[in-house]
Known about the structure:
By secondary structure, the chain is an alpha/beta fold. The protein contains 16 helices and 13 strands.
Amino acid sequence: MNKTKINIQAPKGKLAILTPGMGAVATTLYAGVEAVKKGKHLPIGSYTQLGRIRLGKRTENRFKDVKDLVPLASLDQIVFGGWDIYPENAYEAAAHAKVLENDVLELVKESLSKIKPMPAVFDREFVKRLDGSHVKKGKNKMELAEMLRTDIRNFLKDNGCDRAVMVWCASTEVYTPPTAVHASVKTFEEGLRNNDPAISPSQIYTYAALKERVPYANGSPNVSVEMPCMQELSIEMATPICGSDFKTGQTFLKTVIAPGLRNRQLGVAGWYSTNILGNRDGEVLDDPGSFKSKEVTKSGVLSDIFNKELYPELYSNISHVVRINYYPPRGDNKEGWDNIDIFGWLGYPMQIKVNFLCRDSILAAPIVLDLALFMDLAGRAGMKGIQEWLSFYFKMPITKAGLSPEHDLTLQLLKLENTLRFFTDEELINHLGLTYYGVDEGEE
Ligand SMILES: NC(=O)c1ccc[n+]([C@@H]2O[C@H](COP(=O)([O-])OP(=O)(O)OC[C@H]3O[C@@H](n4cnc5c(N)ncnc54)[C@H](O)[C@@H]3O)[C@@H](O)[C@H]2O)c1
C-alpha cells in the first residue's frame, strides 16, 4: 500500500510524564519504572517494553520489538511529576497506597521521595469522599487553568525537559454529562471565566494540557476528552487526546470473553459482575455519583459488543449488572466475580464463572506507561485529535461522533499494530492469506 511517509521527530531530551493524581496507580508506575531502570525487575504488562510485532509476510519470519520499531522515549529519558490534593511525596504516597512491598519501596525510596506533588485543582462537589488542603485557589476556573499551565511550563524548565504528556491518574469524579458550556472552545472558555458549575477539575486539567500542546490521556471515567470543546481544542492545538478509563481487570476480561461468545454465535441471557476492593479508589467509588461514572464506562462495553440490533436472536434481553463494593480489608487487591448465563444450540442454557483475584494498580501501571510513551510518539508524529488506535487501553474508547467504538481486545491490538506499521512504512497486515487465489498481499 502506498502512503505518505510519516515524519516522526526523534525522541531527543527528557520527557515529562505528568499525572494529575499521585495515588496508587501513579506511584506504582513511578516505582515500577525506577525499579526496572535499576535492572531489578521486568516491565511485565507493558506492550511498549515487552511487545513484539510481526513485520512482512509470514514466510519472512520477521519480528521486531515494538520499542525498536518505533522511536519511543526510553525509560531513562522519563521524568515524573504530578499534582495531588495531599502534600505527601511519591514515596510516602506509595507507602500509604500499600500496593508495593517494602523491598521495592526501599529500592526506589530516594527517587520517589524527590517527586513532590504540585497543588491540585480540586472541587469537593466532584469527589465527595475526599478532602485535601494541598489545592490551588483562584478567582475563577480560568485562573486555575492558567496556574496549571504555569505549572507545566515551570516543570519543563526546572527539570530540563524537552516535552510532556499528561495522563489522568486522579480520582473518579461525579458523573457529569456534557452541557451547553461544553459545546465549543468558545463556550467553554466563557464558562471558565464565569465559574460555570458544570466544569469539573479534570476538564480544567485537560484544557490546560491542550493549551500547552501536551498530549492528554484520560485514565478515569470522568467525562473530559469526550466533550466537543476538548476535541475541537485538540485539533486547534494540533495535540493528541485519548480515553477513557484504563481497561485493567474485569472489563479487560470482558473484552476477551464477550467477542469470543459473539463470534461463535452463542447467546447471552445475563452477565452479573461484582467486585470488592478496599483502596482509596474504592472509597471514592462508594459515592453513588462517582460510581455512576464507572457504571457508564463498564456497562457500555457489553452493549456495544453484543449489538442487539445486529443480533436480536442472541442478545435482545441481556441482564447486565455491575457492582463495586468498598471493602477495606482487601486494599488494592481486588476480587471480581462474573457469572455469565449463556445459551447454545436449541437454546440450551450454560454458565461461565470467572473469579479474578487481581491487583488493581499492578495492572494499571504498565498501561499508564504505554499510553504516555505512545501519546508522546503520536505528538512527535504530528497526530492530533482522537487517537483511536489506543482503544486497546480503555474501557470506553472515544471515537469521532457517530462512530461506535471497537471493544474487542484482539481487534484493538490489530489496529494498534497496524498503526505502528503505518508509522514505519511497513506493510499493513490484513491476515487474508489466500495464496492459491493469487491474493498474497499481507499475510503470506
Ligand atoms: N487501578 C485500576 O485498575 C484502574 C482502572 C481503571 C481506572 N482507574 C482510575 O484511575 C484513577 C486512579 O486510581 P487510583 O487507584 O490510583 O486511586 P487513588 O485514590 O489511589 O489515587 C487518586 C489520587 O488522586 C488524588 N486526586 C483526587 N482529585 C484530584 C485532583 N482534582 N487533582 C489532583 N489529584 C487529585 C487523590 O488525592 C489520590 O491521591 C481513578 O480515577 C480510577 O478510577 C484505575
